[in-house]
Design the sequence.
């Protein structure tokens, strides 16, 4: 799908592929996700993006088309 999320330890990455938006949060210091760290933490962003990409490569194709594509 267009919207993907991964959590690794205290870090959470959200990616909206359709709108091209990315959010990165350190939940240990920001549990309400108020401070997007995507611009200030490029190494952590790349690390979590690699996890998402690896999962996407190994995942099976969706059974049904996305409702946003219909």
Sequence:
């Amino acid at each position: 799908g267009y919207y993907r999320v991964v959590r690794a330890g205290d870090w959470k990455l959200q990616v909206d592929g359709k709108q091209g938006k990315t959010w990165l949060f350190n939940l240990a210091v920001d549990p309400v996700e108020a401070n997007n760290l995507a611009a200030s933490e490029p190494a952590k962003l790349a690390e979590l993006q690699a996890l998402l990409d690896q999962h996407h490569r190994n995942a099976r194709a969706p059974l049904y088309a996305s409702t946003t594509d219909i």
